[in-house]
């Protein structure tokens, strides 16, 4: 079996992984990064992936994004949508203004100029950066740069957002604000989100479901539905209790591998 992006299996699945296996390298240098990962993500669901360093979280996102191919299994994205991918580093073009950065995907999509301008204004308003369109990335804070990266990803007009530690480099206060912002945008746009994080509190704060991957090779070893009503607070006892349970599971898994 090879990795494919075939039509959706069911209207109740936005992203489906079935028996996904990823090996890097060959022969004696081969590294089995993912081993038979199966996961169905519901449309509009917010799924957080946690696991020890090197367990294959980024690999999984890259495969769903279509940046790499799996050796085994299938990956299905509903309606053949091309997911948007965001990283810890905003990866903006430093020589372009904020507006021009957000405009890049719109140009690539071939939107006419007037429509692009309208869309850029709407997206900057969505991430609360309407007054900063003419600035360049170096004039912005880290949190603002991630807002630009988010606006640029949203410009792809995709229903599926893949986020690889997007707030990992930010201070706690900025992260807290961006959690609220992301939650609002996720709800307003009915996005499906796959979010990788090392921060278990962040996972409990944001997720509908938390998935725990084993240490390499990555396999899904545990998951939990987070039913705490929204809006949530990262410092609430309910979130702390879930984070503590995830930490315990993670610690057991890391301990099992002697890392
Ligand atoms: N291009 C590559 N070539 C060889 N090995 C790779 C490559 N990319 C990743 N790996 C290995 O595959 C495994 C999974 O890597 P991946 O980056 O997906 O893990 P991760 O869970 O995202 O890690 P982290 O939490 O540290 O970011 C790791 O052992 C890594 O060293």
UniProtKB/TrEMBL annotation:
Gene3D superfamilies: P-loop containing nucleotide triphosphate hydrolases. One of its GO terms (molecular function) is ATP binding. Keywords: ATP-binding, Nucleotide-binding, Transport. InterPro entries: AAA+_ATPase, ABC_transporter-like_ATP-bd, ABC_transporter-like_CS, ABC_transporter_ATP-bind, P-loop_NTPase. SMART domains: AAA. CDD domains: ABC_NrtD_SsuB_transporters. It holds the Pfam family ABC_tran. Residues 15-240 form the ABC transporter domain. It comes from the Bacteria. PANTHER family: ALIPHATIC SULFONATES IMPORT ATP-BINDING PROTEIN SSUB, TAURINE IMPORT ATP-BINDING PROTEIN-RELATED. This is ABC transporter ATP-binding protein.
């Amino acid at each position: 079996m090879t990795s494919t992006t075939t039509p959706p299996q069911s209207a109740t699945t936005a992203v489906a992984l079935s028996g996904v296996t990823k090996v890097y390298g060959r022969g004696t240098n081969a590294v089995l990064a993912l081993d038979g990962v199966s996961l169905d993500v519901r449309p509009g669901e917010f799924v957080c992936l946690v696991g020890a360093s090197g367990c294959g979280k980024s690999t999984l996102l890259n495969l769903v994004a279509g940046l790499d191919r799996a050796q085994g299994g299938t990956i299905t994205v509903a309606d053949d949508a091309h997911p948007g991918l965001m990283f810890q580093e905003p990866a903006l073009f430093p020589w372009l203004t904020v507006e021009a950065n957000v405009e890049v995907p719109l140009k690539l999509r071939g939107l006419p100029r007037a429509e692009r301008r309208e869309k850029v204004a709407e997206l900057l308003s969505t991430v609360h950066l309407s007054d900063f369109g003419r600035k360049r990335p170096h004039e912005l804070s880290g949190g603002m740069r991630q807002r630009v990266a988010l606006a640029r990803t949203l410009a792809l007009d995709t229903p599926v957002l893949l986020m690889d530690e997007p707030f990992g480099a930010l201070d706690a206060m900025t992260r807290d604000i961006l959690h609220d912002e992301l939650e609002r945008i996720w709800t307003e746009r009915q996005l499906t989100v796959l979010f990788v994080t090392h921060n278990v509190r962040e996972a409990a704060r944001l997720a509908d479901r938390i998935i725990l991957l084993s240490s390499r090779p990555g396999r899904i070893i545990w998951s939990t539905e987070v039913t705490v009503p929204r809006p949530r607070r990262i410092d609430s006892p309910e979130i702390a209790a879930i984070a503590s349970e995830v930490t315990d599971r993670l610690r057991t898994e890391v301990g099992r591998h002697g890392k």
